[in-house]
Specification:
The complex is a heterodimer of chains A (541) and B (220). By secondary structure, chain A is an alpha/beta fold. The longest helix of chain A has 16 residues. Chain A folds into two domains: 265 residues, 2-enoyl-CoA Hydratase, Chain A, domain 1 (Alpha-Beta Complex); 210 residues, LarA, N-terminal domain (Rossmann fold, 3-Layer(aba) Sandwich). In chain A, a hairpin with a 2-residue loop joins β2 and β3. Chain A is 37% helix and 19% strand. Chain B has a single domain, classed as Rossmann fold (3-Layer(aba) Sandwich), CATH 3.40.50. Chain B contains nine helices and seven strands, in the order βαααααβαββαβαβαβ. In chain B, β3 and β4 form a beta hairpin. The longest helix of chain B is centred in the N-terminal third of the chain and has 24 residues. A seven-stranded mixed β-sheet of chain B has the order 4-3-2-1-5-6-7. Classes of the chains: A alpha/beta (541), B alpha/beta (220). At the A-B interface, α14 and α16 of A face α5 and β7 of B.
Chain lengths: 541, 220
């Protein structure tokens, strides 16, 4: 290992340094750590490369229970929760599913903390007709053990399975049509929730796309209600979908949420959590490599060596079993819009980093996890959604990458799918993508066939499979990235056919990928690396 | 072009199988001694049936249907409705109704392709509102079963051939058709449709489905 001089600052102070989280690589900079699926890479980046780091975690609330109680008693634009409760009333608590947060947080999960307080309050006010519904929308249903982990054994044993269960968007008797917006968007919502006197939604906001009207309007809806906004045109018109003010997706959901509010009494509890994704043995993953101590370097080398000797499935298992010690930094309750506005402000405070100027080449390490593969495999479609969807959309103002620039993703791109969780993805990838990658064509020609495929419906209902239409949504999720980016290079892909199927180029290594990118954009490119994870969003000047 | 959903029956849509139906008939023989003897013989033969089925479905048919030899057609018909009400109907997997409903909503013709006997399938097909079915049929001479099946014997590749002919006759596009089965012996049947699904599969079919990336469904 090379000897490095200790530094007093994070890298050299660069020209026009825009934010403390932005670092420019010079001759003396340490190599950078990138995720490549379940592996870690250590790469020397070209001198002048800009690396954008996530902000350090905002200090968590010292007493989350007190903050939650305060929020319930001092809601925004609503009566305190206790004042809304009456003996004998019917209450439904809807809760975000396992797609949030990532990786799953160390127990007790914030949802458990909130719902324990809620149940005490409901019990004290004589409310005993209470159901807890996981708002999984068309995501896979959570398994019993996952549900038990999320809310703890006490609630689980008291409520599961009759009063604590997953939403079922395909239950023929389980949905109610609430209306149609003036733009023709159909709003169908879970029957139990609609027929309740009060719906309490318990949310975790991991990224700014989460929460708000999306919680009920999407979390408890069916396929017909998702179609109006989970489609390519809406995604193209969202600049970006992580910026609700400029997101067509968000506007449509808000419009549909207004109909929900006309028919349902929703009390929204939203929480923001900090960026504390890594701690203990993996805490160095959130650090600037120039600030690595010798211990950090040893930990990194030890982890890298171990991973190199471990089979992929075992590595996946290990990574998925390390929970994140997230802390709650804010909790608001009350009416959906004002609550969401407050929480969004906290989210941006945690994630947004000032960045000046777009890049010609953007480098992102793709980790082992996405919202759609907790306890499962990051299959090729999910690698695509991480790159062209999430990473591309992590901006306000304008994309980090110039129009027509090159995105380099480090991932093995293994051709592996989880047959239980992602059966329709397999058919989508192998049957449809060889025919076309055109999102419009895919939507019009095949989406409904997949959505109504009886096998996929039954696998969603009875098993733990994502809905038949879900791979289409994943493809659309990458649509504005696909429209914007000139070339995507999968660095370190272990095969040629997966990148080819996705319409990408393949490079053996990051160095080769950068050389390929240079030949595409010109000899003196502006190169930027977004140091995900943890989460970082660029506030583009 | 129209399309259809082809279902195997035993183990796919219902928990019971050919042996259950035979055992029911054995138990309901006329005369106590006859009932006891026939039931015990059936029970004793179960390992043989299992071994034969594991080896080859045709061999199973050869050793199994011969047990019907001498049975009266009237009696079998008489017992068929009772068998359906008492044994088959309670054994229909809950998910089977939904699967068929969703499939029908897509405008697919519902077709059973099964090695079970026509006598036992008829009331079930009516109950599930199946549009068409093909089954095995016992040969009767002078009102008594000979222990042989009338051709074509529905098993393995014969099911697939029948489906091809049926699709041609009914102008169905097999690429748009769906197939559902629980057993490796139905691999040909699953292979001729565009949308094969392994339902409650045995280990061999599960492995094959995984290799071919077919959906695996549990209706139990």
């Amino acid at each position: 290992m090379r000897e490095r001089q200790p530094k007093t600052l994070r890298g050299p102070v660069p020209r026009n340094k825009e934010d403390d989280q932005v670092v420019y690589i010079d001759n003396d900079s340490a190599p950078r750590v990138l995720f490549s699926g379940e592996d870690l890479l250590l790469e020397d980046l070209p001198v002048g490369t800009r690396v954008i780091y996530p902000k350090p975690p905002i200090e968590g609330l010292a007493n989350p229970g007190a903050a939650i109680r305060y929020a319930l008693n001092h809601p925004l634009d609503a009566e305190p929760l206790y004042a809304q409760l009456m003996p004998g009333m019917r209450v439904t608590i809807a809760v975000d599913d396992i797609s949030l947060p990532l990786p799953p947080m160390a127990t007790p999960d914030v949802r458990q903390t909130i719902i324990e307080i809620l149940l005490e309050l409901l019990d004290a006010n004589g409310v005993d007709d209470v159901h807890i519904i996981v708002a999984n929308s068309l995501h896979r249903k959570m398994t019993e053990s996952e549900m038990k982990r999320m809310l703890g054994p006490k609630i689980h044993n008291a409520f599961y399975p009759d009063r604590y269960y997953n939403h079922d968007a395909e239950d023929p008797d389980g949905m109610v049509h609430l209306g149609v917006t003036d733009h023709g968007e159909t709003v169908n919502i879970n029957r139990r929730a609609v027929e309740s006197d009060l719906v309490i939604y318990v949310n975790i906001n991991l990224v700014p796309m989460d929460g708000g009207h999306k919680s009920v309007t999407v979390g408890l809806c069916d396929y017909d209600s998702l179609r109006p906004h989970h489609e390519p045109e809406t995604i193209r018109a969202s600049d970006s979908y992580m910026d609700p003010k400029k997101s067509a997706l968000s506007s449509k959901v808000d419009r549909m949420g207004a109909i929900v509010d006309q028919h349902m009494n929703v009390f929204h509890i939203e929480t923001a959590i900090n960026n504390r994704m890594f701690a203990g043995a993996t805490a160095f993953l959130a650090k600037n490599e120039d600030e690595f101590t010798e211990i950090d370097r040893l930990k990194f080398e030890g982890l890298k060596w171990t991973l190199s000797k471990t089979p992929a499935a075992a590595k996946r298992k290990v990574f998925q079993s390390i929970p994140s010690p997230y802390q709650i930094i804010s909790c608001f309750a009350g009416k959906t819009e004002p609550v969401h506005e407050k929480i969004l402000a906290r989210c941006f405070e945690q994630y947004a980093v000032n960045v000046r100027g777009q890049a010609d080449i953007l480098i992102c390490g793709v980790p082992f996890i996405s919202p759609y593969n907790v306890n499962s495999i990051l299959n090729p479609l999910l690698v695509q959604v991480m790159g062209l969807g999430y990473f591309h959309n992590m901006y306000r103002g304008k994309p980090v990458l110039k129009k027509g620039g090159v995105m380099i993703l480090t991932h093995p791109c293994y051709d592996e799918f989880d047959h239980n969780h992602h059966p329709s993805y397999i058919e989508f990838f192998n049957r449809l993508l060889p025919e076309t990658r055109d999102a419009m064509k895919l939507r019009h020609k095949y989406e409904e066939e997949f959505a109504h495929n009886p096998s996929y419906i039954e696998m969603y209902r009875r098993g733990n499979a994502y809905h038949g239409a879900h791979p289409f949504f994943m493809w659309y999720w990458g649509e504005n990235g696909r429209q914007h980016i000139g070339k995507v290079i999968a660095a370190g892909a272990q095969n040629a056919h997966v990148p080819a199927m996705l319409g990408w180029d393949r490079a053996e290594s990051l160095t080769e990928a950068i050389a390929m990118a240079r030949s595409f954009v010109g000899p003196s490119p502006e190169i930027t690396m977004m140091h995900h994870p943890p989460i970082v969003m660029a506030d583009m000047e | 072009m129209a399309a259809a959903a082809f279902y195997d029956l035993d183990g796919t849509l219902v928990r019971t199988n050919l042996v259950h139906a035979f055992a029911y008939n054995a138990k309901n023989q006329q005369g106590l001694l006859r009932s006891v003897t026939k039931t015990l013989t059936t029970l004793a033969s179960v390992p043989l049936f299992m071994a034969a089925d594991f080896y080859n479905r045709r061999l199973f048919n050869d050793v199994f249907f011969v047990r019907y030899k001498g049975e009266s057609e009237d009696r079998l018909r008489y017992l068929a409705d009772e068998l359906f009400e008492n044994a088959i109907r309670p054994s229909i997997f809950p998910g089977a109704y939904e699967l068929i409903d969703k499939s029908r909503q897509l405008g697919l013709r519902q077709v059973l392709v099964t090695g079970a006997l026509d006598l036992t399938v008829r009331p079930l097909a009516k109950h599930l509102k199946i549009d068409d079915y093909v089954t095995n049929r016992l040969e009767f001479v002078d009102g008594y079963a000979t222990g042989r099946l009338l051709p074509p014997v529905m098993a393995a590749a014969t099911k697939a051939s029948w489906m091809r002919i049926y699709a041609e006759k009914e102008r169905l596009n097999l690429s748009d058709c769906y197939g559902y089965s629980d057993s490796m012996s139905d691999l040909p049947m699953l292979s001729v449709v565009g949308h094969p699904t392994a339902v409650n599969p045995d280990m061999r079919l599960r492995n094959t489905a995984l290799q071919h990336d077919w959906p695996i469904l549990d209706l139990r």
